[in-house]
Structures are given as structure tokens and as C-alpha cells.
Amino acid sequence: MTPHRVFVLSGPNLGRLGTREPEVYGSATLEDVAASTQSQAEELGLSLEFRQTDDEAELIGWIHEAVDERADVILNPAAFTHYSYALRDACALVTSAGARLVEVHLSNPAAREEFRHTSVVGGVATGTIAGFGADSYLLAMQALALSGRPATP
Ligand code: DQA
Fold it and tell me: Is 137 one of the annotated active-site residues of the chain?
């Protein structure tokens, strides 16, 4: 059986993890997050595509790629979370194609500045995991592995 495909996508400034506001985001680098998600993916029998970009158009292109592969998506939209309707519309394609999209955040945006309380992505995500540092990515993978995919529409 082909392993279940999952795109793990991270948005702007997340390439700076490790040195970016470590009191908020922790000391793990994105390479550390990639390594731990990759090893958990192997245990769970998932085939991962792990990518980061600062570019909105590139991120949307990767979501289209996931839609075309009918892959599930774990997405940390970073600051795009709070205002990118274009990204939201791309995310809606994932769930309407019958795949799952988990919104993840290292920090808990609801406990931070007011502008972070709004997620334009949350309404089209299957679910959201926030506030567990780098473990948010691992928890999202476990959620995908544990809960079944919805029936094909
Ligand atoms: C973040 C939270 C966002 O508000 C912020 O813009 C980020 C990171 C998180 O993972 O906690 O860049 O998505």
C-alpha cells in the first residue's frame, strides 16, 4: 500500500526558528522540527513533504500541489493566519477535496496580541493545534494518523 502523503508547510519567518523570539517560539530550529516530524512520520507510516517559505504565492502553490495529490496538509500559516484570504481559499480546496488540513501554531495565538486572535484559516481547517511549541507539529501528525479521513464526497 502507498504510504499516506502529508504536506507539512510552514509560512513566513518560521525559517528563523531557534533564534526568533525563543521566549515565544522555543529554541528548536526548523531543521529540528523537520527531523522530529520525519522520524514520527516513519513510525506512523506517513510519507512527508516538509517545506517552508516566506512567500504567499509559493505557499498557495504548494497547497494546490497537495490538493492535486489529495494529500493531507499540516499548515503553520504564521502571520498569514491573520489576514490572508487567498491562503484561506486555497485551504478550503483541501477540505472540500475530502482531505484534511490541520492548522498548527507553536505559540497559542489566543493568548497573545489581539491581532493574533483572528485566524482566517481556522474556519476551513479540519482542526487546529496551538500552544505546544514544536510538539504542535507532532500532535497534528498523530491527529491525522488517529482519526480517519472523511468519506469521499
Ligand atoms: C505562529 C503564530 C503567528 O501569530 C505568528 O505570526 C507566527 C508564528 C506560531 O506558530 O505560533 O509567525 O504561527
Answer: no
Instruction: List, for residues 25-82, the tens digit of each pLDDT value.
Output: 999 999 999 999 999 999 999 999 999 999 999 999 999 999 999 999 999 999 999 9
What are the chain's domains? 4-147 (3.40.50.9100)
- Taking the CA of residue 11 as reference, the ligand 1 atom at the shortest distance is 12
Predicted confidence band of residue 153 (pLDDT cuts 50, 70, 90): very low
Q: CA-CA distance, 143 to 31, in Å (whole number)?
A: 22
Q: Which of 4, 25, 64, 117 is an active site residue?
A: 25
Residue nearest to atom 10 of ligand 1 (CA): 105
Residue 123 and residue 32: Cα distance in Å, rounded? 29
Q: Which residues pair with 48 in a beta bridge?
A: 6
